[in-house]
Amino acid sequence: FIKNQMDLFTINSKLENGQYTSTKEFESDIHLIFRNCYTYNNIGSEMYCLGEELESAFNKIWTEKIIFQVKQKENLKRIRDTSDADGKLYIFVTLIVIVAIKLLTLFL
Q: What does the pLDDT look like over 16-30, one tens digit per residue?
């Protein structure tokens, strides 16, 4: 049973509308998607494995600060600014949404 639902469309919308007040909120929503994926899908299933791959990619980028440098109390407004790190985070989130849409169309 999924108690707290989250999806990439909601995250993208929250980014576009400036609803995140910290990078921690954004990261928490991303990880909620993965926890929900593992709760809903059986271990070893295609969706479970895709979730693991996407989570691994996100964690690598997030930890290595490839997209942007994370500071504890940094405001996400800087992330949404296309001049920040060449807008790489926005591009990353957009690409995740595109991949998610393609995955959904494969399974629907």
A: 888 988 878 888 999
Contacts of 61 (CB under 8 A, 6+ apart): 67, 92
Provide the 8-state DSSP code for 98.
Answer: H
The whole domain housing 83 covers: 8-107
User: For the residues of 17-85, what is the DSSP string, one character each?
Assistant: TT--SSHHHHHHHHHHHHHHHHHHSPTTSHHHHHHHHHHHHHHHHHHHTSS----TT--THHHHSTTGG
What is the CATH number for 74?
1.20.920
Calpha distance 75→105 (Å, rounded)? 34
User: Which helix or strand (DSSP H or E) is residue 11 part of?
Assistant: helix 8-16
